[in-house]
Write a structure and sequence with these properties.
CATH superfamily of the largest domain: Aldehyde Dehydrogenase, Chain A, domain 1
Strand order of the largest sheet: 8-9-10-7-6-11
InterPro entries: Ald_DH/histidinol_DH, CoA_reduct_LuxC
CATH topology of the largest domain: Aldehyde Dehydrogenase, Chain A, domain 1
Distance between the termini: 19 Å
Shape: globular
Keywords: NADP
Strand content: 15-25%
Helix content: 25-40%
Protein name: Acyl-CoA reductase
Oligomer: single chain
Number of domains: 2
Amino acid sequence: MNLQQRIDAFVKLGDFLGQFSNEVIEKKDNIEHNDLFFDGFKHQLKLAKEHNGWFTQENITYAIKSWHEALTESNLKKWLSVYQIDERSPKTIAIIMAGNIPLVGFHDFLSVLICGHKVLVKQSANDKQLLPYLSKYLEYINPGFKERITFIDSEINGFDAVIATGSNNTARYFEYYFKNKPSIIRNSRNSVAVLTGDELEEDLKKLSEDIFRYYGLGCRNVSKLFVPIDYNFDAFFKAMYHWHPIIEGAKYANNYDYNKAVYLMSEFNMLENGFLMIKEDASYASPIATVFYEYYDSPIQLREKLKSEAQQIQCIVSDGFVENEIPFGASQKPQLWDYADGVDSIEFLLSIQ
């Protein structure tokens, strides 16, 4: 396979996913191998929801829609246009995936294959239903992928480089275990939003998407607010309210009740509206159904703080506050060229000799 053939295959995969990117699944006539794969993928979606209570129909559909929109020929060519991707002898790249949101490891999977390498995938137990099935679809689109995609449950062996994602504890283990291999090791990061008090209601409504999408489980979800001293949270809570049906999910409701009880017994000061709690806290990683906040009195000092603590931060959501910020409502809409932890995985993969 050459690069154009690989691009063509992923474009066709994006077309296939388009059938499942809306609330109503609709089978289309012009999708290759649809008779073989359409009903099977519907079943995999059902299995994914049954296996992981956080993978609701809404969240799975959102993830699939995001990849359907990303996997166009124009997007793929724009992404890859800045690299020199020569045809070479493929290396085997191991990927250890997280499982916090649906298809969270797909970008790494795509990156390895689009560069012409072989991929050795170790999935999280929380997200094992969708990607292997989509891989089979790719193999039918272009049989050249058959020798390039392997899924394993056992110990990883026979690889040339690794991309591994995990918690801070597992990242330390990865760094030791893979110390003799080229690697990208990702640990826990969280995203923040900087408010000035001048935001419109529409801005704050968009921010609610950054907070609640995927139940807040993604590293790109906003888990911490920086607000000016004497900030009034009334407008914030008003803008959040349209997300109140989230409390109807049993897993979310259980976490809300548990964390609320902990805060009350510990006599922590917090504000809540029946489905979201906000608590003043210097930490970045907040529990489910909670957003931490911290006051600032100097924008200059806050910019310095965010810069010095950048290793803990995935995204900064704001409006004209820092460079490379994410607009309100866009933290869960990364482009192909938006790399996790700011590490260019394509550049890394092209450097593997």
